[in-house]
Input
Amino acid sequence: MAKTEIEQLESALNALVHRPQLIRFDYWASRIEGLLEQTGLSPRDRQRLHALRDLLGLVPRECTVVSP
Output
């Protein structure tokens, strides 16, 4: 199930990355984060989701930015 969802996300985001004005960042971020929270993801699926998150330029929730 997660594999199909990840493939759909990859397809949609790869198409939308060429049209940034169409990207609804909150929507896609929540879809990616929701899938990352699932247990039982294969390492490959988790890697794909992280790549999609990077494609959007999102900062992972578990990381915090510390200013100097």
Residues 2-56 form one domain. Residues 62-68 have pLDDT under 50 and may be disordered. The chain has one domain: 2-56. The chain has three helices and no strands.
